[in-house]
Design a protein that fits this description.
340 residues; alpha+beta; Cytochrome Bc1 Complex, Chain D, domain 2; 4 domains; five-stranded antiparallel β-sheet; two-stranded antiparallel sheet; 14 helices; flat
C-alpha cells in the first residue's frame, strides 16, 4: 500500500509538460504533436502509440491524457478553434508557421538531401517518385500526413531497410526531421506554385484521330475552323495552356482558360415591358439583374411571369465534358498543337 501511495505521489509530482516532452519526444518533435482532438480521440492516440511500442506507464498515460485534453482539445488555446497568432484560425504554430502545413526549411532540406542520397535514392528515385524497388513517396499518405517527422520518425524507428545496409532505426531524430523537409520539398515541387515546376509531356495522343473527332463525332467544326479562328493557335499557346483552353474555355480552372471576350449573358423579358440583354450581376432564386452594353443595370424580382433566357457561348463545351473520353482529349490536343 505504501509503495502504491509513493508511486502515486511521485506521478502527481511530475510536471505534465515534462512527461509530454519525455514520452512523446522520444519519437516525435514535441512541437509537432499538437493536432487538436477531443479527449476520447487523445485516448485513442495514446493507446495507438502504446500499441506501436511506446513505453508509457499507467500513471504517465493519465498525466498525458489530462495534459493533451486540456492543452490541445477543441476550443483550447492550442486548438484551431480560436483566433491568435500564426496559422489559419489561430491554430498551433511552429516557428510562426501553421502546423496544418509542413513549411520547408531549405537548410534542413539540403541536409536531408545528403541522407536521401546515401540511404534512399536507389529505391525511391531522385525526386521521391519511386522506382521498381520502392514506392512513390509523393503520393504516400504517411508522407502527406507527416509534419516535421511526426509520422516518419516512428515509422523509421521500427526498422526499414536502407541502401547502405543499415537499419533506419540508426538514423537520429535530426536526420529524419531533415529527411522530412527534403521529401516535403519534393512534394511541393510538383505544385504549380513551385519555382521549378514544369509541366510534363502531355502531348501523347494521335493527331489524325483528333482531327477526325474534331470534324466528326465531336462536331467541333460546326463552330471552329483550323483556317479561321483556330489558325496559328498552337503558336500562341503552349500545350498545357492549349489543353486548358479547349476543355475549359470560360476560364477558372487553374487560370488556364480564358473566354476570348465571350461571356454569358441573360435576356430578360418582363410581363409588361421590353426585353433587355446583359451580363449577369445578380442571378439567384429571388432576384436577377444584368448590366447592358451601355453599363446600365436592370434589376427584376423573379416570378413565373418573368422570362429569362441564358445565352451561354460555352454551353456546348460544358456538355462535352460528359462526352470526352481520355483518348478523345489526348487526340484533340495532339491535333491542336499541329495548328501552327
Amino acid at each position: 500500500m505504501w509503495v502504491c501511495l509513493a508511486a502515486a505521489a511521485l506521478a502527481g509530482a511530475q510536471e505534465p509538460a515534462s512527461v509530454f516532452q519525455n514520452v512523446c519526444g522520444k519519437c516525435h518533435p514535441p512541437e509537432a504533436v499538437v493536432t487538436p482532438r477531443p479527449r476520447a480521440q487523445w485516448q485513442e492516440t495514446i493507446n495507438k502509440m502504446v500499441d506501436l511500442g511506446a513505453k508509457v506507464s499507467a500513471e504517465e498515460r493519465t498525466i498525458l491524457l489530462d495534459y493533451l485534453s486540456a492543452t490541445y482539445g477543441p476550443g483550447t488555446a492550442g486548438g484551431r478553434g480560436r483566433g491568435g497568432r500564426g496559422g489559419r484560425g489561430g491554430g498551433p504554430t511552429l516557428n510562426g508557421a501553421p502546423l496544418d502545413r509542413h513549411v520547408v526549411d531549405p537548410e534542413a532540406a539540403n541536409r536531408g538531401r545528403s541522407v536521401w542520397v546515401a540511404e534512399c535514392i536507389e529505391c525511391h528515385g531522385t525526386s521521391a517518385r519511386g522506382t521498381d524497388k520502392g514506392k512513390n513517396l509523393i503520393q504516400s499518405d504517411m508522407v502527406l500526413h507527416d509534419r516535421y517527422g511526426s509520422t516518419l520518425v516512428p515509422f523509421l524507428a521500427k526498422g526499414h531497410p536502407m541502401q547502405s545496409g543499415r537499419k533506419s532505426a540508426s538514423l537520429s531524430q535530426t536526420d529524419v526531421a531533415d529527411l522530412s523537409h527534403f521529401i516535403h520539398e519534393r512534394v511541393y515541387d510538383t505544385l504549380r506554385g513551385s519555382s521549378i515546376f514544369q509541366p510534363q509531356q502531355i502531348v501523347t495522343g494521335d493527331a489524325k484521330a483528333g482531327e477526325a473527332w474534331f470534324n466528326g463525332a465531336g462536331k467541333c467544326s460546326t463552330c471552329h475552323s483550323p483556317t479561321g479562328d483556330l489558325k496559328g493557335i498552337a503558336g500562341r499557346y503552349d500545350a498545357a495552356t492549349l489543353q486548358g483552353r479547349f476543355l475549359f474555355p470560360r476560364g477558372g480552372r487553374g487560370g488556364r482558360g480564358g473566354g476570348g471576350g465571350k461571356q454569358l449573358t441573360l435576356t430578360i423579358t418582363p410581363p409588361n415591358g421590353s426585353a433587355v440583354t446583359g451580363i449577369p450581376v445578380v442571378f439567384d432564386d429571388f432576384d436577377v439583374s444584368v448590366r447592358d452594353d451601355k453599363g446600365e443595370v436592370h434589376a427584376f424580382t423573379r416570378s413565373p411571369q418573368l422570362k429569362i433566357v441564358r445565352n451561354d457561348p460555352f454551353a456546348t463545351h460544358d456538355q462535352l465534358l460528359d462526352v470526352y473520353t481520355d483518348k478523345n482529349m489526348h487526340d484533340m490536343l495532339a491535333y491542336l498543337v499541329t495548328l501552327k
